[in-house]
Amino acid sequence: MNYFILTGASRGIGESICKKLLLKDHHLICVSRERNDSLISLANSKLDYIQYDLNNVYGIEELMEEIFEKVDSSVVESLTLINNAGLVFSQKIEETEPDSIIKIMNVNLLSPMILTSSFIKKAEQYDVEKRILNVSSGSSFNLAPGGSCYSTSKAGLETFTKSIGIETGNVKIMAIRPGMVDTDMHSDTVNRKNIKSADYAAKRILTFLFERFEHGKVVRAW
Ligand SMILES: NC(=O)c1ccc[n+]([C@@H]2O[C@H](COP(=O)([O-])OP(=O)(O)OC[C@H]3O[C@@H](n4cnc5c(N)ncnc54)[C@H](OP(=O)(O)O)[C@@H]3O)[C@@H](O)[C@H]2O)c1
Prior knowledge:
Oligomer: single chain
Low-confidence stretches: none
Helix content: 25-40%
Bound molecules: NADP nicotinamide-adenine-dinucleotide phosphate
Strand content: 15-25%
Largest sheet: 7 strands, parallel
Mean pLDDT: 96
Structural class: alpha/beta
Shape: globular
């Protein structure tokens, strides 16, 4: 059995990734605040849904305990963590409440860091293929007024990915930057010329995960 832990499965890119991962020898463990009932009803393979707010970074080790209770050691063939959950806002920094700054860093950066740490720790006991894929953004380097918090969180996620890449050998890690994707994150985007569907983004992301994994690297999805 191939186990996939995926954050942000309730909608958007994460939901599309999950739909494509619903295969016989896959077991999905999905995490987000809202439960995705349509995904659960679609699941012809094993799928567990854990409702969790990743702003609560202090509970993540316990969350990983709960996740690994679902891993059957007699059948596990691979373990994959996909850090996809994220949020965005555009606001000048002096107009941004401290709580919003803390929340975006918690969800976009600190939670993937702590999930990675506890994933590596818990996965150590299994002599199987282990991968971590972090969903970043071109905003990590493509800066815009109002985007300082989002860009900083994604630049941090990319540096973290590259750092872990040189720190660990038996857990493979990479980050991927989708281009502009038609999800709630871009619901108010006016220029939709280059926007791709969540389904397309999921397909590209999974191509990198299964066929073009580049350990320690940050890549563009297209
Ligand atoms: N859309 C784009 O153009 C684009 C471009 C580049 C990168 N990305 C990245 O792609 C990833 C997915 O984005 P998307 O476009 O699919 O966005 P989306 O449709 O807004 O979905 C975001 C997902 O993240 C989850 N999430 C947000 N806050 C959370 C929290 N506090 N705790 C747990 N889960 C939380 C949401 O679930 P709940 O609300 O149910 O918790 C939802 O499932 C993000 O990391 C984003 O930065 C997107």
